[in-house]
């Protein structure tokens, strides 16, 4: 098992602080009701229109199957690094077609750069993205900023690491939203590497940047590689929003109430 025997030539201790941000949303307004009959009918319709729960702008995934279900029918592009020569390195702000990479963290002190390698097992083919260091992999404390040259609505990838990785040791971050690796790997490579999937699907806006963070709670060093980057966008014809029958009935009731009040006013 190659992953079980990777050289750990540079011991590094990384301290980090987790922050939790809690958001609360509130809305209030004061309304005078000089025409109660009209407002009652129209308020009922407005309540029905606002009854649907709000959707989150970004949904995180730890399962490739669930991620694929969420983007079914979308136009997608997968980068598996097979068409790129092993040994290719990417300096800050460069990358393969569709991406640019910028590495920060302890590895940069040694001049390490993202690189296409074929040393260890991976999720597809023989090539993957690691670093041009003795371990051939990202290490504790590293952060890989990923920029999409074309904005997308979904992004996912596989990370492959050694045994001992705990839940949330590897994290994908987009627009302040974070999804960490699951406690249990999705599978293993032919040489004992542990495979995890991380992804996000946007339900509101396009995304163009992500970052992948590698660290552990106890500062342990777990070399990790990346493969099969996926971007996707929904280019299908958007559905036409049609009010439901109940909503139409309530709005019609409001209109009838308004008409009745106008007739009453004319008679007086």
Account of the 3D structure:
This protein has 268 residues and is an alpha+beta fold. The chain has a domain at 56-233: Jelly Rolls, CATH 2.60.120. The protein is built from three helices and 13 strands; from the N terminus they run αβαββββββββββββα. It has helices spanning 36-49, 64-70, 245-267, and strands spanning 58-61, 75-79, 99-104, 114-117, 128-131, 143-152, 154-161, 170-174, 177-180, 187-188, 194-202, 207-214, 224-233. The strands form three sheets. Strands 1, 2, 7, 10, 11 and 13 form a six-stranded antiparallel sheet that branches. The longest helix is centred in the C-terminal third of the chain and has 23 residues, at 245-267. The chain is globular.
Q: How many helices in DSSP terms?
A: 3
DSSP strand tally: 13
Order of helices and strands: HEHEEEEEEEEEEEEH
Give me the CATH architecture of the domain at 56-233, please: Sandwich
Shape: globular
Major beta sheet summary: 6 strands, antiparallel
* CATH topology (fold) name of the domain at 56-233: Jelly Rolls
Fraction in beta strands: 25-35%
Q: How far is the first residue's CA from the last residue's CA?
A: 92 Å
Radius of gyration (Å): 26 Å
Global structural class: alpha+beta
**Assigned CATH class of the domain at 56-233:** Mainly Beta
Proportion in helices: 10-25%
Mean pLDDT: 77
Low-pLDDT sequence parts: 4-55
């Amino acid at each position: 098992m190659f992953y079980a025997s990777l050289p750990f030539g540079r011991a590094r201790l990384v301290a980090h602080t987790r922050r939790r941000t809690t958001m609360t949303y509130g809305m209030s307004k004061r309304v005078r009701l000089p025409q109660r009959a009209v407002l009652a009918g129209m308020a009922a319709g407005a309540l029905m229109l606002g009854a649907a729960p709000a959707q989150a702008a970004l949904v995180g995934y730890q399962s490739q199957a669930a991620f694929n279900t969420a983007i079914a029918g979308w136009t997608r592009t997968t980068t598996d690094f097979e068409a790129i020569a092993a040994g290719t390195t990417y300096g800050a702000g460069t990358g393969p077609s569709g991406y640019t990479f910028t590495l920060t963290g302890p590895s940069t002190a040694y001049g390490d750069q993202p690189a296409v390698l074929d040393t260890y097992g991976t999720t597809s083919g023989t090539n993957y993205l690691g670093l041009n260091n003795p371990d051939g992999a990202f290490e504790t404390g590293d952060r890989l900023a990923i920029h999409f040259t074309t904005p997308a609505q979904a992004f996912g990838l596989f990370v492959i690491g050694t045994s001992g990785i705990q839940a949330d040791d590897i994290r994908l971050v987009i627009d302040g939203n974070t999804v960490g690796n699951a406690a249990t790997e999705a599978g293993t490579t032919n040489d004992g590497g542990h495979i995890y999937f991380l992804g996000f699907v946007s339900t509101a806006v396009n995304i163009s940047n992500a970052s992948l963070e590698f660290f552990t709670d106890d500062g342990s060093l777990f070399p990790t590689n990346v493969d099969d980057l996926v971007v996707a966008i929904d280019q299908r014809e958007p559905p036409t929003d049609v009010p439901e029958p109940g909503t139409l009935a309530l709005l019609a009731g409001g209109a009838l109430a308004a008409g009745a009040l106008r007739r009453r006013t004319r008679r007086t």
